[in-house]
User: What shape does this take?
Amino acid sequence: MGTFSLVNETTAQVPSDSRPSTAPPKVSRTKIVSWAMWDWGTQPFDTVITTFVFSVYLVSESFGTKNFTSQALAVATAIGGIFIALLAPVLGQNADRTGHTVRNLRGLTWALAAISVLLFFVKPHDTPVLSLFGTDVPMYLLLGLTLLATGSVISAIAGVNSNSLLTTISTPSNIGRISGFGWGMGYLGGILVLLAIYFLFIQPDVGLFGVTSAEGMDIRVSMVLCGVWTMIFTIPIFLNLKDTPKIPPASRVGVVESYKELGRSIARIWRRSPHTIYFLMASALFRDGLAGVFAFGAIIAAGTFDFSTGDVIIFGAAANIVAGLSTMGMGLMDDKVGPKRVILISLGTLVALGLAIFFLHDGGTIVFWVCGLLMSACVGPAQSASRSFLARIVPEGRAGEVFGLYATTGRVVSFLAPAMFAVAIGLGHAITGEPNTQYWGILGIVVILLAGFLVMIPVKEKQETIS
Assistant: This one.
């Protein structure tokens, strides 16, 4: 077997007919690794803050009842998703017009690091309270939710800029392995930072620098570490990747015109390849459901299955490992049986496992460990096969437009999973009268996954030409 290589040689020639005119004629391993280090450096926000540590801390009883804090988190996440849907296409088009992708990414990354550090000031108290729309909301809960939602918007828009840089550091022959390398670096970075904060601050009675769990200090100091991690490990991308501003400078385009252009793109694709639109609709639904699995899985682990913070972190590390390995393994299946089958198998399994967690929630932690890890094994393959499905039908020279639309449609419905999670919890309380119906939230996620599954069934794998 040959040695794995990210590029065919130390440098790779980029064909002029397959890259924008701004792409450099050669790319190096240094640039590839620098680009991948951005995923490594920013992963703490997704893994530690959004999924396994801070969000779990924020829905603890220190800030209110489990139902109230879980629903508040879902609402804040939904609001953040709406802002992502509104801002992502406009800001993405702006970066394309000006050529200031790296500059924009740098500002967004620094803002994300600052948000992470500011989470230190979210103390575990349900007082004082602030009246908001007739509801008394603990002020520290509101601060945490505001920072978390703002960070999610910044992280998503930064991700659009990072993804757009992939075409400048790759060729058609190695874009897949380079993309996978970046994805893998993200998983690895998430696992390492999770374990670092667990063994340095959370697991010991007295951690590094004398940190204890009093006043939530172990969690709050971990947020500072996340911000520092992001600042340090994203330095390489800003040292080694540079912008090529458009000459002459692009004219400014207003918000209304940006959305008009988006509408024209959708209409053009609908006329020439309606099944591509069907796929974009289906993928928008099930990708939101996939995001919900990770976003609210840890919340259910703690609130329904009584996982401690340490248990959640260990589960998170295991889930990331399982997701990474299953994605690589199912990638081989993708090539043999086609991405549509991989997507449907993954979604069908996720729906079944979600229902199992709901009906077996009284079975103890073993239920969540088994079902949760199996769900993690399905998330990565569905995401990867979704991207592979679209890549197989994108006509030459139109990848940017079609994948840009792919990103936009995903953001448009990114509020659905958190909204359905909150609605399902409320419905469960109304039906059962139980004080803690958090486990009903999984049904909201299942509904979104099932909707994506059903819309995906009639989509044709062999698409019409959309050039």
